[in-house]
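Narrative of accomplishments. A recurring question from our advisory board has been how the design workflow behaves on a single, concrete structure rather than in aggregate. To address it, we present the structure tokens for one chain from the evaluation set, followed by the sequence designed for it. No filtering or post-editing was applied between the two.
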């Protein structure tokens, strides 16, 4: 897994830190195939746009923001490949990955 060094821009509203960001090989390939970068998905994640989560999982993220638990977002690339973004509970790291890489 390689660190993502392209996360300098911040969204206008941030409620948590990403920590060090990583992109797994599968997610990196999916983004490349779609002609996208992880930045647009990280911005959404940091702006509390949790993507394609159930209402229950979205509520869990809101609780996690208050209680300091792990955060999960789910998105699809322009080619339809599902991506997850997970920010660790201690906010030390955020990883973009494919669900089957979990």
């Amino acid at each position: 897994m390689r660190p993502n060094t392209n996360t300098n821009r911040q969204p206008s509203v941030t409620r948590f830190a990403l920590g060090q960001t990583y992109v797994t090989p599968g997610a990196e390939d999916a983004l490349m195939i779609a002609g996208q970068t992880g930045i647009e998905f990280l911005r959404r994640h940091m702006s509390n746009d949790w993507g394609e989560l159930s209402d229950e999982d979205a509520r869990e993220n809101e609780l996690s923001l208050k209680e300091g638990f792990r955060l999960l977002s789910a998105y699809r690339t322009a080619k339809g490949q599902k991506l997850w973004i997970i920010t660790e509970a201690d906010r030390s790291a955020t990883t973009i990955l494919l669900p089957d890489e979990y």
